[in-house]
Amino acid sequence: MAKILVNAIEIRTIKFNEEDYISLTDMLKAKDGEYFFSNWLRNRNTIEFLGIWEKVYNPDFNCAEFDIIKSQAGLNSYRLSAKEWMEKTSAIGIISKAGRYGGTYAHKDIAFEFAMWISPEFKVYLIREFQRLKDEEQKLLGWSAKRELAKLNYRIHTDAIKQNLIPPELDRKKVSIVYADEADVLNVAMFGMTAQEWRDANPDKKGNIRDYATINELICLSNLESLNSVFINDGLPQSERLMRLNKVAISQMKVLSEVTDRTIFLPDLKEV
């Protein structure tokens, strides 16, 4: 569940059948509550819109019941609740949820139509804030994908070290030293210093050198991990691997700086 703020009103959104639904219950705070919702739902234009939407997206929509409802829509004596609409027609565009986060929710297409009934201004702000939410979700997905890629590359890198550089008889403490040493090969190739050198130069900072890396640096570092695992498997000595990785880092950072915002920090990489 996520929330958006529209004209100082907090509105919940949920996922249902992999689709986005927006809380009509929350949106009603901008108007007159349930009575206002009933008027919207009994309106003939609303019923026709809901019916068309269901016919397009819902193969189980009860068209026979819909025709009965449509014939009565707009009459002064006619009343229709969201629950009755769902039960009679097997509709999926409007749903009700019980419990702590309960209420009436509508598919975003329908919620935008309901927002127009509240006011054109409310609809514009609702669409804007909902799109902002979707943009933030996409950024989060992109960052998650980068993290998963980094994890995979890290596993490939450590496996290459384990299979090629660590003798079976080595104790755990010395094994850790080998891993740290190879991590520093990447640090020197990318940042020009080891992890310890960075800590000595930045005693006031928490974390490690990679915690302060830019997105471009992290992308490049992930690529270096993959390349170093290949070099290790090929049996290249550490000194040669370091030289090659450093040249790749310089080249890739120049490319990344050209395809992203030119104000992004570009470290002054030099050949080691």
From TrEMBL:
PROSITE patterns: KILA_N. It comes from the Bacteria. Residues 1-133 form the KilA-N domain. InterPro entries: KilA/APSES_HTH, KilA_N. This is KilA domain-containing protein. It comes from Victivallis vadensis. The lineage of its organism: Bacteria, Pseudomonadati, Lentisphaerota, Lentisphaeria, Victivallales.
